[in-house]
Amino acid sequence: xxxxxxxxxxxxxxxxxxxxxxxxxxxxxxxxxxxxxxxxxxxxxxxxxxxxxxxxxxxxxxxxxxxxxxxxxxxxxxxxxxxxxxxxxxxxxxxxxxxxxxxxxxxxxxxxxxxxxxxxxxxxxxxxxxxxxxxxxxxxxxxxxxxxxxxxxxxxxxxxxxxxxxxxxxxxxxxxxxxxxxxxxxxxx
Length: 189
Fold this sequence. Notes:
One of its GO terms (biological process) is positive regulation of DNA-templated transcription. One of its GO terms (cellular component) is nucleus. The chain is mainly α. It has helices at residues 20-25, 44-54, 57-65, 69-88, 94-124, 130-157. It is built from 6 helices and no strands.
């Protein structure tokens, strides 16, 4: 497993260099380290810090250990993104970015509709006076403004995400998976 980028031999073949996660946790990086392939010694500690703060090192390790090797890289990218989003916006996390992008898409769709209307008007009446085309374009602009206002009102009516769970107590485990982590995903029940 050390060939993928870490372990006891170190990251990228550098002897004695722990992976970024083990460096952050100040522990010895072993050959079976689940984090070594995904957190380099140089930049991995900073990326892992967000995961550790939001999810916890143990929970992240359990999550990765229960995934097939082919899915682990994507899982690391995802939990890193979600952890960094949650640190930037503790209430909404990445949902705030999703809402902002949805609003941007709505505005761009309205602009596209306006541009298509302008093209249709110019093709429909090529010999029309410029004043009649200008009045039609103003009407389209008013319609676009109303559409954008409706979309903004609609996006404000979308209920906010549920409140965060109560603070974690040391005695309660946090599960990142929809199934208990004590059981193997491949073991019969």
